[in-house]
Design a protein that fits this description.
single chain, mainly alpha, 9 helices, 76% helix, elongated
Length: 234
């Protein structure tokens, strides 16, 4: 009886030792990463993610055909669009929504160089914050580094495309009045700026998704540095 209890106790102790060893191995593998490796892994992951996101979004239906990033009408204008549809103006509303999303699709490729430049110039601190940060750490990094300059690049392209849609001009007039009553956010009262902002939101969303795929399956990337860095987090 005592031998049986000792046997069970030993097995339990061995189990605890294995769990402790696994935890220690995880801690050691992460802490053993050099700053150089950590930064190189993150740069590689983010550059791959940024280029993949630009390729996915910067084509026909990249925004319009993707419910995660498809740009809708803002605020109460979504409800107003339904009334227009009932009034036989549904085609014009559809043209506006399509035009908004086409503008985003045309603008996104212009961001490739800025995104890659932000990745290449990132600091070791940036890299470690992303490596150990939450799900939105990538979005925060890119938004902090590139939102303003990308907005300046995107806006002229978005403006040129949306101006081809007749209802876009009406949108700006109606939205400006609506914003005075608090029905539409002030930053959404200009269709060109609204679409530019949503284009950036969609871009950062997809970059974050691509980076999460790398975290989940670093081996599948075929990159030694990604396997080393993100494999240490497993």
């Amino acid at each position: 009886m005592q031998r049986r209890q000792f046997h069970h106790l030993s097995l339990g102790s061995v189990g605890l030792l294995i769990v402790a060893a696994q935890r220690q191995a995880w801690a050691l593998s992460l802490s053993d990463l050099t700053d150089k490796d950590a930064a190189a892994g993150i740069r590689t992951a983010l550059e791959k993610g940024a280029l993949a996101a630009v390729a996915l979004l910067g084509k026909t239906d990249g925004f319009l055909g993707n419910p995660k990033v498809r740009i809708p009408l803002p605020g109460y204008l979504e409800d107003a669009a339904k009334l227009l549809s009932f009034a036989g103006q549904g085609k014009r509303v559809d043209e506006l929504i399509t035009g908004m999303n086409r503008a985003a699709e045309q603008a996104v490729p212009l961001g490739k160089d800025l995104l890659v430049g932000a990745v290449k110039s990132m600091s070791v601190t940036d890299a470690k914050n992303i490596l150990t940060g939450g799900d939105d750490s990538v979005t925060r990094f890119f938004a902090d580094k590139t939102r303003a300059p990308l907005g300046e690049k995107f806006l002229p392209v978005v403006t040129k495309t949306t101006q081809k849609v007749g209802l876009a001009r009406s949108y700006n007039r109606v939205a400006e009045k609506a914003s005075g009553f608090g029905l539409v956010k002030k930053e959404d009262a200009n269709i060109e700026r609204y679409v530019t902002g949503k284009s950036l939101d969609g871009l950062y969303t997809i970059i974050g998704e691509e980076e999460r795929k790398i975290r989940q399956d670093p081996v599948g990337t075929g990159s030694d540095i990604l396997k080393k860095v993100f494999g240490s987090l497993k």
